[in-house]
């Protein structure tokens, strides 16, 4: 029992001089990976899972389109809607939106515009195919079905 | 004099640095959304010219691998009913590499394949003639869930990527990670794809029964 009392007082505190460095390292990691959200998503977004994911080389070519049930069902109803930029679009306006997005790109890249389709997993194929028809109409034929990774069970 | 200064007190007091860093860290932790620009790439067909009739398709039925998905998310693969998409990748692989009638163009292709892929070729006269002719067709209903469609599409893509990866001696994941950003990667990518086009046709969904 008496042994405990004999401990040296000086060696009791843990050296914490490296702690700020560790924290700073974490901080820099999150600072680099963070993307501040510049738009509010008005539709539900539970991305589906897939295994064969690919990453695109040039991020500037991607325009995002969101499809899902509106979060504010009192205002927009429960049917799946399409959101691009900040507002909900009607299907017929997609061509116009694509053309605007395409004009914002450099001239050489215009043919390579890619639409990342962030569709909720509960959406049916009907609205998806309507959007795809419009994208074909607008000649933006590269579509990326945004999805999250899944571990393959085999 | 400087010499007289106590060595112990020369350090700057950094005790609160951790607190400041913690505060910033927590801010970024909360605001961060790890960018997820990953997905499955699909190239849509060009739009139809209303003045021209839709192109005639004179493909043999055996060269088309048909997958139908109905509004209940049931599958009909080459006429067989099934509930899940498991194993579809293997079937696509066997279908594409069937080589029932290899012509002079595709025979060298067959000979260039590694032995593990040659073993897949069953030369079944009921299946595809050669990889150039083979088309995988996915047809959905308007009531099919997007989730199921993507699962099937994913499996078909996996079938193709497995072939490409095996040709260049890579893992499927490694092959998919190739971005073609330098010449060596581009060459690998092209060597995998050469002669075996990824022909996945997405048919217009039908409206009946949704």
TrEMBL record, chain A:
The similarity comment for this entry is: Belongs to the ExbD/TolR family.
Annotated TM spans:
18-36
Q: What is its main location?
A: membrane
The subcellular localization recorded is: Cell membrane
* Keywords linked to the UniProt accession: Cell membrane, Membrane, Protein transport, Transmembrane, Transmembrane helix, Transport
Signal peptide (UniProt feature, chain positions):
none
In terms of InterPro entries, this protein maps to: ExbD
Topology of the protein relative to the lipid bilayer? Single-pass membrane protein; Single-pass type II membrane protein
Q: Which domain of life is it from?
A: Bacteria
Enumerate the PANTHER family for this protein.
Answer: BIOPOLYMER TRANSPORT PROTEIN EXBD-RELATED, EXBD MEMBRANE COMPONENT OF PMF-DRIVEN MACROMOLECULE IMPORT SYSTEM
Q: Mind telling me what this protein is named?
A: Biopolymer transporter ExbD
From TrEMBL, chain B:
- Primary subcellular site in the record, as a coarse category: membrane
Q: How does it sit in the membrane?
A: Single-pass membrane protein; Single-pass type II membrane protein
Cellular localisation: Cell membrane
Question: In the UniProt record, does the keyword Cell membrane occur?
Answer: yes
Query: Which residues does UniProt call coiled coil?
Result: none
Task: Identify the keywords attached in UniProt to this record, alphabetized.
Answer: Cell membrane, Membrane, Protein transport, Transmembrane, Transmembrane helix, Transport
Protein name (database record): Biopolymer transporter ExbD
Give the classification, highest ranks. Answer: Bacteria, Pseudomonadati, Bacteroidota, Cytophagia, Cytophagales
């Amino acid at each position: 029992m008496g042994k405990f009392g004999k401990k040296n007082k000086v060696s009791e505190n843990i050296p914490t001089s490296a702690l700020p460095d560790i924290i700073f390292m974490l901080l820099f990691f999150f600072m680099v990976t963070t993307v501040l959200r510049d738009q509010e998503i008005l539709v539900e977004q539970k991305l589906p899972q897939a295994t064969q994911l690919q990453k695109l080389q040039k991020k500037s070519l991607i325009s995002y389109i969101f499809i899902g049930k509106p979060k504010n069902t009192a205002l927009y109803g429960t049917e799946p809607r399409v959101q691009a930029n900040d507002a909900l679009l009607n299907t017929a306006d997609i061509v116009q939106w694509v053309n605007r997005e395409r004009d914002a790109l450099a001239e050489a890249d215009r043919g390579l515009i890619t639409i990342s389709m962030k569709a909720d997993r509960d959406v049916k194929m009907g609205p998806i195919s309507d959007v795809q028809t419009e994208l074909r109409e607008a000649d933006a034929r590269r579509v990326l079905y945004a999805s999250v990774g899944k571990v393959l069970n085999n | 004099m400087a010499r007289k200064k106590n060595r112990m007190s020369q350090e700057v007091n950094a005790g609160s640095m951790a607190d400041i860093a913690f505060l910033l860290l927590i801010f970024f932790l909360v605001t961060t959304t790890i960018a997820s620009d990953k997905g499955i790439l699909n190239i849509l067909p060009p739009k139809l010219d209303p003045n021209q009739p839709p192109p005639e398709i004179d493909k043999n039925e055996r060269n088309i691998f048909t997958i139908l998905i109905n509004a209940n998310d049931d599958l009909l693969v080459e006429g067989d009913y099934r509930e899940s998409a498991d194993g579809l990748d293997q079937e696509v692989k066997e279908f594409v590499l069937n080589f029932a009638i290899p012509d002079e163009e595709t025979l060298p292709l067959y000979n260039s394949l590694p032995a593990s892929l040659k073993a897949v070729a069953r030369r079944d006269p009921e299946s595809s003639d050669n990889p150039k002719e083979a088309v995988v067709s996915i047809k959905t209903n308007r009531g099919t869930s997007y989730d199921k469609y993507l699962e099937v599409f994913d499996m078909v893509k996996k079938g193709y990527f497995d072939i490409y990866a095996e040709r260049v001696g890579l893992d499927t994941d490694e092959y998919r990670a190739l971005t073609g950003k330098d010449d060596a990667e581009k060459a690998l990518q092209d060597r995998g794809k050469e002669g075996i086009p990824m022909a996945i046709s997405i048919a217009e969904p039908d409206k009946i029964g949704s």
